[in-house]
Amino acid sequence: MGKQQPQLSFWQVWNVSFGFLGVQFGFALQNANVSRILSDLGADPHQLSFFWIVAPLMGLIVQPFVGAASDRTWNRMGRRTPFIFAGAIAAAIGMVLMPNAPLFVAFIAPMIFGVLMLAIMDASFNVCFQPFRALVSDMVPPKQRNVGYSVQSLLINIGAVVGSLLPFLLTNVIGLDNTTEPGSVAQSVMWAFYIGATVLLGTVLWTVFRTKEYPPEQYYAYKGMDAVEVAKAREQKPPVSERLSNFVRLVIHMPTTMKGLAVTQFFSWFALFIMWVYTTNAITQHIWGVDKKWFDQSFLATLDAVPLEIAAAKGAAGDWVGIIFAAYSLFAAIFSVFLAKLADRLGRKLVYSGALALGGLSYISFMFFQDLTPVDVNLLITQVTVPMGALYLLVPMIGVGIAWAAILAMPYAMLAGALPADKTGIYMGIFNFTIAAPQIISALTAGLILKYAFDNEAINIIALAGVLMIFAAVSVFFVKETERQVAD
Q1: What is the pTM of this model?
Q2: Model confidence at 486, in pLDDT bands (50, 70, 90)?
Q3: Which of 62, 134, 446, 453 is 20 to 30 A away from residue 341, measured at CA?
Q4: What is the pLDDT of residue 380?
Q5: Residue 421: predicted pLDDT
C-alpha cells in the first residue's frame, strides 16, 4: 500500500502545465502557417503532405527515447523538466530560423531549408510534449486526473488560439504585409514566429521554476513502489540488444487500454493531419474561388508574376485559416472547462465518442459553405471583408473544437491509470506511436488521394477527414479501461 499522494491546489495544477501553453502557441503557428510557407517557397499542393511527414516522424523517433530517458532521470532540475526546458530552447531556435529560409539561398534551397527547420521544430516540440504529459501523471493524484488533463487541455487551447490568430492580428491591427512573391515569406508570418519563440521560452521557464517534482523516494511511495528496488533495477545496464528486446516486449505487452485507444487514435489523428495540411488550400479554392491552377508550381513557373488579386485572395484565405483555427481552439478551451465534470458524470467513453462524432460531422459540413458574397466582419479589434462562406465556417469550428479538446485530454485520462508507475514515461512515449503512425500514413497517402481521387480539389479531402473522425467515434466504445491499483 503506497502513501497517499497529496491533492494539489488549482494553481499548482495550472503551473504543472502552464509551459504547454507556450509549446502549443508555437505548434499552432506551425500548423496554421507551414503549408502556407512551404507553398510560398515552391511546394505543389499534392507535395505538402510529403513535407509534413517530418512532423510525425520526429514524434515517432523522439518521444519513446525521451520517455525512457525521463523515466530514468533524477537531477536538481527534476525528472521531466530538464527535457521540457531543452526542447523549448531548440524549438525557439527553429521558429526564428524557419521564416528566414530565403536568407540562406546561397547555401541551400529555401524550401529544403524550410523543411529542415520544420524537422527541428517538430523534434523539439516532441521533446516537450511527452514529458509534459508524464508530468501531469507524476504530479497529479488519481482523484484529480480528469482535472489535471482538462487544465492542460485548456492551456493548450489558449496557446493555440493566440498562436493561430497572431499573423492575422499583425496584418489587420499592426499593419504588417501578408502578401508575398514566390520564394519568400510574408512579413506578418515572420514576426509571428519571432513572437511565438519568445512566448514558448517564457511559459516553459514558468513551469520549470514553479513546479517542484517529487524526489524518487517520495514519488515511488505515492505510487506504491519500493524506491530501493527500483533503483537497484536501474543500476543494472543490460546490453543494447537486451534493452531493445525489453522495449519490443513492452510494445507487445502494452496495456489493453492502450491497444484499444490505438485504433481510435489512428482514425482521429489521420483526420487531424489532413485538416492541418489542406485547410488553407481547401478554403482558398472552395470559398475564395481561387482556381486550383494557382497552386500548381509548374503553371506558376510560366508566369512573370502572380496577379495581385490572386495573391491577395491567397493571403486573405491564409489569414482566415488562422481565424478558424483560433476559433476551434477557443471552443476547445471553453469545452475543456466542462470536460472533467462531464467525464465524471457521463463517463469518459461517452464524452470522448460524442465529441469525435461532432467533429467528424463538422468537417463534412465544410462542403456546404460556398457563398462568395462579400461581407464585412467586425472582429472588435479590426474589420475585414470576407466571403460569407468563410464566416459560416465558424459554426463547424465549434464541433472541431469540442473534438480537439477531447482528443487532448480523454485518451491520456483513460490511459494514465493503466500504466505502471515506473514506466509511465516510456509508455507515454510509446503511446505517441498511435499519434505519429497515422500521420505518417496520412502524409504518404493524402497527397496521392488529393491528386488522383479528388483532382486536387482540396475540399473533398476535408470531407474524407470527417468520415474518418466518425470511425474514431465508433471505435471508442471498444476500448477497455483498467485502473492501476494504488492508494489514493
Answers
A1: 0.72
A2: very low
A3: 134
A4: 75
A5: 67
